[in-house]
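Researcher: We're teaching a course module on how sequence relates to structure. For the next exercise, students receive a sequence and then see the predicted structure as tokens, so they can try to spot secondary structure elements on their own. Here is the exercise chain.
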Amino acid sequence: MNPRSEPLLWIQLLGLAALPAELLLAFLLLAGADPGPLPGLERVLCWSLGALLPAVLFWRQPPDVWSLLVVQIPLQGRRELQRRLSGLQAPLAVKLVGAAGAALLLPLVWLMDDHAGLAMAVSPLAGSSRLVTLLLTLPLLALSLWQWQQLCQSVWLLSRPEALVAGMAASALTPEATARERLCLGLPLLLPEPLLLEPVLLAASAIAPEQHAEEQQGSALDDQVS
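Model: And here is the predicted structure for the students to work with:
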């Protein structure tokens, strides 16, 4: 019952690298048009639709940690460990940290839009209307928040001790409860095998005494020569 044997939790950590790329693309999209007559209102509306509304949805239905947005592990094909971790993935503290990502996006949107004119020459939407740039920015904000939520949940689950997970049999979510309480997006095509951590540890523990014995033999030979 080792959470670190689940490869999808490690893959979710790649969101840490994807977040800057998504925000950079949003910055380039906002640079495609000059601000309108009420830029502050436009930024707040953009943030409300692209970040606040998804944050409310994610609070009610946290993103399924076994979903990569496009593909996911089938609900009926999930292992016992995966179901137990699904029951542990969204405590109040993790939900609060995930919701804080939406709050951080407001000053980021404000800052990006305020300095977007610097990148107008390299914007893929240069010369477009303001409405087009704002509408195309919305899904990027929602995607960034999704990545942030999955990152927080994966870090939380990877840090859970094996004893805690083994004792949470009653908290294992059934497929029906998972579909009802988690936001499960993507095609059910993933069936990753667990990482083989125990054989690696056993091999390392077997090699260590041999290395220690060789070191002792080497030191004994040195003493005899001296």
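Model: If you want an answer key for the exercise: Confidence is low (pLDDT under 50) at residues 200-204. The CA atoms of residues 45 and 134 lie 9 Å apart.
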